[in-house]
Amino acid sequence: MPELTYAGAVNAALRRCLEELPETLLYGEDVAKPGGVHGVTRKLWKDFGDRVFDTPISESAILGSAVGAAMLGRRPIVEIMWADFFLVALDQLVNQAANVRYVSGGRLAAPLTVRTQQGNSPGACAQHSQNLEALFTHIPGLRVVVPSTPQNAYDSMLSAVHCDDPVVVFDNRTLYFGEKQEVDTSAAPAPIGGSTVRRTGSAATVVTWGAITHRVLEAADRLAADGIEVTVLETPWLNPFDHDAVHASVARTGGRLAVVHEANVTGGFGGEVVVRALEAGVLSARPVRIGAADGRIPAAPALAAELLPGTDRIETELRTLARD
Amino acid sequence: MTEDRLEADLAAMWRIRAFEEKLQALHKSGELIGSVHLCIGQEAAPVGACTELVDGDALFATYRGHGWALAKGTPTRELFAELLGRATGVNGGRGGSAYFSAPEYGFYGENSIVGAGASHAVGAALAGKHDGSGRIAMAVFGDGAMNQGAVGEAMNFAAAFDLPVLFVCENNRYSELTPINDMVRNDQLTERATALGIPATRIDGNDPARVRSTVAGYAAEARNGGGPAFVELITQRLVGHYIGDVQQYRTRAELEADGLVEPLAVATSALAGSGVDTDAIEGRARAEIEAAAEQALADPFADPDTAKEHLYA
Ligand SMILES: Cc1ncc(C[n+]2csc(CCOP(=O)(O)OP(=O)(O)O)c2C)c(N)n1
Ligand SMILES: [Mg+2]
């Protein structure tokens, strides 16, 4: 199995899709010749000719042309460089892509994948720091995945591209050039959805997705050192979401549930996870939502750190939950 | 007279260059964190244009806006402090390199969303129509931003309502890592403006005097009810799109050629033999910048307890 960074894993998955699915296209700002501003799409342009190309800074046309090409039989993979930049072109996903299959009664489809990345990194400004997954998960007709590891990223990309509906893949740029890991690049593409138990313990179930999974695991390790073992259930797919796995796990962990995401708490997808657990009757303790404070994200790292959920805060809140 | 002007312009351009070069050093030393877009090579645009804006006018720039903020008179120390996450920054550290504002100086802000500022300028002009100020607004953006729908909408909006907006397009030939000419069929960007009924000119953006006289003409017309105008400034950045961009997409020959036409080199050679001590101009600028950076570095970091302030009225 090759050892790959997260970026390398995405690149390998894209390469495989371009090789195996002649109907795929890959385009976006700076993705071809420059290889992407984060280097994720490096060299793909060399090997796939005009199926991989750079575009103008025209997010509406990037997304809208992907919708149109998908309706006519292509399988576009397009990049929105920063999730924040989606916002200049949301019509093409929300009013357009999400409606194609439904309104045509299934005679048309929009099998497109949008790659993007999100979240704060030190010094990033308020317009380059948001976590917008809940906004897209709110929209019926779109699929959403937020991976956290090279394997996860590889598998998600493969599943997303093979999916016959529009999928948004949210990376987090701080993960791109982390440690290399062995990635199984040979398995057949899995259907979208599912979740992964990252560690087990009976004190509580902690549901999480995306880059913050790593902080959650760190916090869980610290708790384990004190004899508090929690289950960490990573749910990269937010649509479809593995509520069943959450409920089964919560039932095994004393009815205790925490959800952790980097996005701010109000309207975050954590709220939905908690309410579904409540409706399923599996909660016996006060559920905990951990996310960024409801605020804009300041550029100064010292200010941002105050608002974003760090390992210390996650540890403290989980400790309280486990003792509840 | 023109020599005096050129001397002053060179000094103003050196302040910007020295500021930006200091940022390179601070980024290298780890004191400046995050994505930083420098305007090294593009100093003539703000220096030429900003003298034609008066109190009450409104300027909207982009993430590559340090030079514009400086040319509008924003104090260097407060700018450094902003970029260094200090409490004394123009926005107390909230904005950072790519998204600060200094309205006290007519600088209504950078923007990190390509093209977003153009319609803010339209709104500033619209406000001027109703508040009796007679304000004109200036929107600065890059060549790549011309392909953003919001810019086209803003230009037509201003045109339809004869709003006094000067659209200033700094054409440095690249949008991030991609040449503008690969992303358009017609590289005459001014024709997009003229198609909308907006008078437009493409000029040498490395000549502050030329920038100034062009902006002055359009500004006078705008103040007299003449509506919007569009100026395309042909220029170049001598550095990467952001600090850390190694510019593999540019040849050494191209960078060398750019080095010959960049505004400081041109102004310096124009002043050769005039008796003006251009080294001293540079030295004064660097001294001012060093002192400001030192002060900012000694300022306290933004207080985490204030992180939630100012979200709502
Ligand atoms: C809506 C949007 N899309 C993409 C980006 C990413 N981005 C930032 S700067 C830039 C290039 C802009 O080029 P240009 O307008 O020529 O300005 P320059 O950087 O050359 O000054 C891009 C694509 C963004 N910030 N906003
Ligand atoms: Mg440009």
TrEMBL record, chain A:
Domain called Transketolase-like pyrimidine-binding: residue spans: 4-178
Cofactor annotation: thiamine diphosphate
Keywords: Oxidoreductase, Thiamine pyrophosphate
GO molecular function: magnesium ion binding; oxidoreductase activity
InterPro entries from the UniProt entry: THDP-binding, Transketo_C/PFOR_II, Transketolase-like_Pyr-bd, Transketolase_C
Keyword Oxidoreductase attached: yes
Keyword Oxidoreductase: yes
The protein's name in its UniProt record: Acetoin dehydrogenase
Annotated source species: Prauserella cavernicola
UniProtKB/TrEMBL annotation, chain B:
Cofactor: thiamine diphosphate
Domain Dehydrogenase E1 component: 13-302
A UniProt-annotated Pfam family: E1_dh
Keyword list, A-Z: Oxidoreductase, Thiamine pyrophosphate
Alphabetized InterPro entries for the sequence: DH_E1, PDH_E1_Alpha_Subunit, THDP-binding
Domain of life: Bacteria
A Gene Ontology molecular function term of the record: magnesium ion binding
Gene Ontology terms: biological process: pyruvate decarboxylation to acetyl-CoA
PANTHER family referenced in this protein's UniProt entry, alphabetically: PYRUVATE DEHYDROGENASE E1 COMPONENT SUBUNIT ALPHA (PTHR11516:SF60), PYRUVATE DEHYDROGENASE E1 COMPONENT, ALPHA SUBUNIT BACTERIAL AND ORGANELLAR (PTHR11516)
Record-given protein name: Thiamine pyrophosphate-dependent dehydrogenase E1 component subunit alpha
Upper taxonomic lineage: Bacteria, Bacillati, Actinomycetota, Actinomycetes, Pseudonocardiales
